[in-house]
Amino acid sequence: MPVARTRFSVLSEDFAADPYRYFAPLRNQAPVHYEPAIDSYFLSRHEDVKRVLTDHEAFTTETLQVRAEPVMRGRVLAQMTGAEHTAKRKIVVRGFTGPALQEQIRAIRANAAELIAPFLTRGRMDLVNDFGKPLAVQVTLDVLGLERRDWRQVAAWHGGIAEFITSMDLTPERRRHCMDCAEQLEAYLLPVIEQRRRHPGEDLVSRLCAAEFDGIGMSDRDVTALIFNVLVAAAEPADKTLALLFKHLIDRPEQLAQVRRDPDLLGAAIAETLRFTPPVQLVPRRAGQDTAFAGGTVPAGATVFCMIGAANRDPAAFTDPDSFDIHRPDLGVARSFTAAAQHLSFGTGLHQCVGAAFARAEIETVAAMLLPLLDQVRHSPGLRYQEAGLYTRGPVSLPLEFTPVRAGERRLGPTL
Ligand code: HEM
To answer: Which family is annotated (predicted)?
Structure first.
């Protein structure tokens, strides 16, 4: 069946301003939406998105050769399959699970306490730009074993790399800028890789340098690409999730009060935030063969974008999907951060997010610390809330006010 052509475009300003308004019409009227300007198909139903992400033989990650590889300096995990993928994924995951995780949680707490301190007496801050973004980059640098003090520079390079991967219409000038960012980050990393090969530590860069696959160590290029991989994958969605969590709770004072009373509910609040407003909105694949869906056929060789935000709001998957409810029975908190998750915010199948449990630990730790500190937290007066991003999406800023901490007053717990 041919795909129905509509004048609606996911590349329009209206869609960019509020994609959530369009998800139900897309699922109902154009579940296989064709976008001629970029010759790509957009799938919005939960069932279809899940099918594409789990059938990795029919839908490959070959699009990443063009979308990611030029700026990643080599192949990333999402481009690998079979024994190579299993082995390298295992090495990466060891960098932020088990004993490494406990150490990192302590570092996250100390780091977050340092970042928030100057704002406490002022009684206001922008949760995205003053706190969430620096924290997400610094935490990722800690995991990798890179210098936290270089975070501004790394964040700037990271921004260029992420722009390349997530843009739908990159001008030649922006493309050059993105490539420069990638080259400079690579030049920054090469001496570090050389040093870790000679003097390994417990950090992820050292583990990657020491790892062997099929009896052969990884080249500098292989290691660099995996460092880029973790840097981009971990930092980009974490600050967005934290800001969205606070936005949704502040907008629903009853649920905020419940989480304040019982911080054990934070896991559910984070899972529901991820379902309701996933920071990774699009996951690309290439169709290996002609594939029929209810709304039409995707031809072999076509680029397909899985619309995670639309799939998570599909009434076939969740009851009353457009309401934010930390108590919803159809989510399942524990499974929401595993391969059994019903929401698709971490992807699903072979390439499901390797950092899901770490992301939960990171955001839960930080939110549990912030809530008692931000007494009477509310949006700043005159807030003009705006989200940005088609591929990854989150608040541009989130200015908050709260009761200032007076000199001598302690709201930080003894563990800090
Ligand atoms: C809320 C936070 C996060 C979200 C929403 C998220 C989302 C995702 C998604 C949707 C994918 C699948 C991509 C695909 O199928 O092509 C993915 C993969 C991945 N994520 Fe995450 N992620 C998060 C945090 C993290 C963190 C903290 C790390 C590392 C510390 C991480 C590392 C990775 C890696 C390495 C992959 C590729 C896995 C593979 O191809 O086998 N992510 N993530």
So the answer is: Belongs to the cytochrome P450 family.
